[in-house]
Amino acid sequence: MEALQRPVILILGAGAVGLSLAGKLRGAGTVYAACRPAHADAIRERGLVMEGIWGNATHEGLTCVTGPKEVPPGVDFVIITAKGTDTRAICEEYAGVIRDRPVASLQNGIGNEEVIACYTDTVIGGTVTTNFSVVGPGHVRVSSESAPMRFGVWSGDGGGALDRLIGIIRSAGIPVEADDDIRSGKWTKALLNIAVNPICALLRAPVGVAADGDIQETVAGLIRETFAVAGAEGVRLPWATADDYLTHLFGVQVPDFAAVYPSMYYDLRRGHRTEIDLLNGHIASLGERHGIETPHNRCIAGLVRYAEAHPGTP
User: Fold this and answer.
1) Do 136 and 109 touch, CB atoms closer than 8 A?
2) pTM of the predicted model, to two decimals?
3) Is 249 helix (H, G, I), strand (E, B) or coil?
4) What is the predicted pLDDT for the residue at 143?
5) Are 138 and 43 in contact (CB under 8 A)?
6) Separation of alpha carbons 72 and 70, rounded Å
7) Measured CA angle at 267 (ends 139, 200), to 5 deg
8) Average pLDDT, rounded, for the chain
9) Residue 283: helix, strand or coil by DSSP?
10) What is the pLDDT of residue 1?
C-alpha cells in the first residue's frame, strides 16, 4: 500500500466506544462505522458531535453503514467494539468483509477473540480503560483516560498488522501501546469486572459496596476461583496470588471507583442482556472444562441470568 494512501477502517458495533474511536480516527484514515439508525441519521444530518478529553468538535466525513453491502472493498482493518453478547452475530453478518482481514477486538470480557478467530486468521486483542458515554444520537463524550489503549496479536501472523494499526491509532492522537501478552492483559482487565460488576448489578449499588464486610468474602471467592482457572489456562497475571490481587482490589480499585455504577448495573435496570457469560459465566465454564470447582462464579452468574429473565424483579 502506498504511504500516502489513507487506511480504510471499519468499526463494527459503534456505540459509545466505537463512535468515539471513529471520530478520532477520522483524522488518520477513511472510517466506516456500523451503528444504530438513530446515530446514523444524526451523523448524516450534522456530523458526529464529540466532547471531553479527546476534544470538543463536530466530525464530518464519517460514513455510517447499516449492513455489509454498504461497506466498500479494500477495508484494511476491522475493529469490533460491540458488546460481547453480539460478537458472533456481528461476525456472521459481516463474515464476507471480515474474512482474510486483520480484525481487532476492543471489547470487555473474555472469549471474544476466540469467536472472531472462527471468521478470520489474524486477530488482534485490545483493552481500553477510557470512560466513554453516549450523550444522545450521534453525540458522545470522553470523560477520562486512566491508561493507554493496548493491542497485541491474539492469533495468526499479525505482527505487521499490529504495528500498522498501532501507528494509525497513534497518528490520530490516541495513546496506545503494544502488549506482548494480550491474553494476560484481557484477563487482568476482567478481574475487576468479575469481582464487582454482578454484585453491583444485583444489589443496585455502586462499586464501593464490595468493601462491605458482608460482601468481601463473596468477592474473595470469585477472585480465588478466577486465579485458579487462569492458572489452568496458562494465563500469567501481574499478581502472584489471588490474595495479592485482593489487596490491590480493596486497597486501590474499589476506593478509586467507589461511586461508579458498572455497565452491568445499567443493563439490568434497562432490561438489556448483560455480559455475564463473558465474565463470571465464562470462568464457570472454563472451570468445568479443567475440573476446577467454581461455586461462587457459577452462583453469581445464575443470579444475574435470573435477573435478566425477570426484569423489574425487586
Assistant:
1) no
2) 0.91
3) helix
4) 87
5) yes
6) 6
7) 120
8) 94
9) helix
10) 39
